[in-house]
Amino acid sequence: KQAQLMEVLKKEVRAMLIAAKEGLTPAQLEEQYMAMVCKPLPLQDLGFQSTLEMVKHMPEVVRVSSYSNGTFILKAIADDTTKGIAKLVACQKDRTRTKSWKKTAMKANAASPSKNIKHPQHSPWSARTPALPVTVKAELQDLLGSSPLLLKDLEKAFLRRFGRVFPYRQYGFSSVLEAIRSVSDSIAVVEQAKTGSLLVLRKYLANVVEQEEVPRAPAAEMPPLEPIYDTESFCQPALPMKCEPVGTEAVDLGDHLKQPQDSQQFLPKKLTLTPEIPPDAVQDSSLCSLPPLQRRCLVGVVVEFVASPSHFYIHICSRETSYKLQDLMFEMRHLYSHKLVSDQYAMPDSAVRPGQLCCVTVSRWWYRVIIHRVVSDQEVEVFYVDYGHLQVVQKSWLSLVKWHYLKLPAQAIPCSLAWVKPVEGTWSPAATLLFKNLCRLKELVGIVDEYVDGVLHLFLCDTSTKEDVYFHSVLRDKGYADVCGENIPSQEFKELNPSALYIQPSGKETAELEEPYLCLQQESLDADGEAAALKLHGAEPCD
């Protein structure tokens, strides 16, 4: 069983490292893995004490480079089946670096750490101080959100809550206290002579100093990267028994919940506020979409929802977008779980109408949604703007969404598989099932072709297997699809495209749009290389 797990892990690690041109540190590999599969690397299951120890047992997959300052950089060793993708990645511009780092690297001609072995202080990694990843910070805030903890009890509480030890050493810290002090902007250390140091969220610090008790809330786990739903019956009413909102005791959250006097300036001028609606609640506004991706760029993607090969939604895989959505979900959960807030932002009947942006609670997590239609006096059908599916939910599960939760663009991107059409005119259930299985719980490489009527047409490739798997080729070889040289507009999206109905296009300039969101930006692909990469020999235009 361990051998099977190790083989799967090797494929996943190779896929993540191939997508990282400059390589990853052990800590960054942990972050990428957490973002992809929503759980930590299975170090304990395989008997390893650290990520570095694990990759040293993968000599055929990972090359470990060490520098005199103690930094380790992990890079993929491409095998015969992944050399094609690795060669494409080698030609890419790394668009995830900050602008200052990018300018410095260009001047120094030192984009790769391997060029700086003699002068490791010029390496982009060497200047980094120890830092906890966003996921661990969120876990600490979630842990302390129920009540303060003594510093000496933190490791036990972390292990009990999340099922693993507090990984401060993995991120370069020599002690728990040093790790906590690195997040002093959100967590305060209160010195107490008798019991020792007390860890408190800064937002609750005033309450603790006054010796007011903070009630405990239910234990929390990491947020799922997708809402809990059945893809086979995504339009059916959800079951109240499984998704009933959790009530908690009222708690004094301090001054941070008081509305600023100038909050009116953040609202559209045409709004007329009603007394029961908080001034920072959204009443008449829309979310923006992610910026469009450039043609022929390579991106890491995860398929979130599938109706057919011509109708599915993806997430772009990058640390920035993944963690921003995860941080938003943590913040919404922490806020709306308190009865004081849930009462204040309860959805009034007057706001329940198609097109209304709000949030819904499902299995103790809150998701941004848009009301698509009112089903009955008790139920509405909502569109999950960050995941791409429709679901019928109870009206009582809805809440008004705060204005600043609109800053993050809608994360779900409507897509169709490029250059394919069903052989039978419509996609058969068997073809859709095959496509779902190909997409399931994997980070894939997407090759952007074009947008048609607001729907992204792209090729999908799975690089985690022994041989690269191109989805259009699999559908063709199984007799489900014809591969052709053009994109046929999706009939399903023609009939209903909630993203087009409710999500506004990004308003930024095209030249600046793709930079924060691309994992890989293709610099150039000549005609021969493109044909080889896509394996589309002999493609004919569709009728």
From TrEMBL:
<dbReference type="InterPro" id="IPR002999">
    <property type="entry name" value="Tudor"/>
</dbReference>
<keyword id="KW-0963">Cytoplasm</keyword>
<keyword id="KW-0744">Spermatogenesis</keyword>
<dbReference type="InterPro" id="IPR041966">
    <property type="entry name" value="LOTUS-like"/>
</dbReference>
<dbReference type="InterPro" id="IPR035437">
    <property type="entry name" value="SNase_OB-fold_sf"/>
</dbReference>
<dbReference type="InterPro" id="IPR050621">
    <property type="entry name" value="Tudor_domain_containing"/>
</dbReference>
<comment type="similarity">
    <text>Belongs to the TDRD5 family.</text>
</comment>
<dbReference type="GO" id="GO:0030154">
    <property type="term" value="P:cell differentiation"/>
</dbReference>
<keyword id="KW-0217">Developmental protein</keyword>
<feature type="domain" description="HTH OST-type">
    <location>
        <begin position="5"/>
        <end position="78"/>
    </location>
</feature>
<keyword id="KW-0677">Repeat</keyword>
<keyword id="KW-0221">Differentiation</keyword>
<feature type="region of interest" description="Disordered">
    <location>
        <begin position="101"/>
        <end position="124"/>
    </location>
</feature>
<dbReference type="Pfam" id="PF00567">
    <property type="entry name" value="TUDOR"/>
</dbReference>
<feature type="domain" description="HTH OST-type">
    <location>
        <begin position="128"/>
        <end position="204"/>
    </location>
</feature>
<dbReference type="GO" id="GO:0007283">
    <property type="term" value="P:spermatogenesis"/>
</dbReference>
<dbReference type="GO" id="GO:0005737">
    <property type="term" value="C:cytoplasm"/>
</dbReference>
<dbReference type="Pfam" id="PF12872">
    <property type="entry name" value="OST-HTH"/>
</dbReference>
<protein>
    <recommendedName>
        <fullName>Tudor domain-containing protein 5</fullName>
    </recommendedName>
</protein>
<dbReference type="InterPro" id="IPR025605">
    <property type="entry name" value="OST-HTH/LOTUS_dom"/>
</dbReference>
<feature type="domain" description="Tudor">
    <location>
        <begin position="351"/>
        <end position="408"/>
    </location>
</feature>
